[in-house]
Amino acid sequence: MSYENLLLEMHGKVALITLNRPQALNALSPALTAELSALLDALETDDGVAAVVLTGSEKAFAAGADIKAMKDWGYMDVYKSDFITATWERLASFRKPSIAAVAGYALGGGCELAMMCDFIIAADSARFGQPEITIGTIPGAGGTQRLTRFIGKSKAMDMVLTGRLMDAQEAERCGLVSRLVPADRLIEEALAAATKIAQMSAPIAMMAKESVNRAFETPLAEGIRFERRLFHATFATEDRREGMAAFVEKRKPDFKDR
Ligand code: HXC
């Protein structure tokens, strides 16, 4: 399959997806998000893919939803097409590990897309923001929800109500970003992290991801019970047996994804 707005490169079992609308700072047009959704469908069922890195350009991860595309839409246009659920949320429901590698602007829908990944590695040039209020709307792809859960009410309110941008250092301090790296090492670091994950058992990594994500949706006791069920389920896998045997035998595990 070929894509107009995305680039895809395989690095071993890691799929590197690059948002590629440089003329619009990777503004997330309906065509781009539809392509991303279709690509994720394909990667999810491909056993040759163990993890995904999503990135943009040096100047912009993505400067938001495409304002030029949206500007003349009315309520019925967005309601009837359920803008944005069908395509954008595909990344949030992607079952394999995903890393956002962010340089430059990650604004509005760009910040929301990055937050749908499992974690964010940021270049020191990264700037995050939910500036929708400055163009007369509010975040619509999780910006008021995920951001608040990730960085707390006060900072989320500050960003959503003033539309101010947060630099990479602040984003790392408040936990939006897991690692901060020099811009020229961003892709290398993100691929190294994804490659490390790809060396684990794929189904076990999926269970770990599913369990962490559950923390955002359940009370603690329920989340702990969910974790316990999945933890017990790992004992039904060959890879759990292999992992522990390899430790005891002082060798590298040979995971078979079973
Ligand atoms: C459409 C965009 C765009 C966007 C930039 N461009 N952001 N086009 N949608 N979100 C286009 C510009 O129109 C311009 O094209 C080109 O990209 C370069 O942008 P400039 O503004 O000239 O660059 P610069 O001066 O460096 O400023 C960079 C910037 C600014 C600070 C990132 O572009 C900006 O503020 N962009 C909008 C950010 C924003 O409000 N995002 C939230 C969108 S709403 P031309 O052809 O004109 O030169 C949203 C809602 C999501 O995301 C809800 C869920 C769907």
TrEMBL record:
It catalyses: a (3S)-3-hydroxyacyl-CoA = a (2E)-enoyl-CoA + H2O; a 4-saturated-(3S)-3-hydroxyacyl-CoA = a (3E)-enoyl-CoA + H2O. GO terms for molecular function: enoyl-CoA hydratase activity; isomerase activity. One of its GO terms (biological process) is fatty acid beta-oxidation. Keywords: Fatty acid metabolism, Isomerase, Lipid metabolism, Lyase. It comes from the Bacteria. Its EC number is 4.2.1.17. The keyword Amino-acid biosynthesis does not apply. This is enoyl-CoA hydratase. It comes from Azotobacter vinelandii (strain DJ / ATCC BAA-1303).
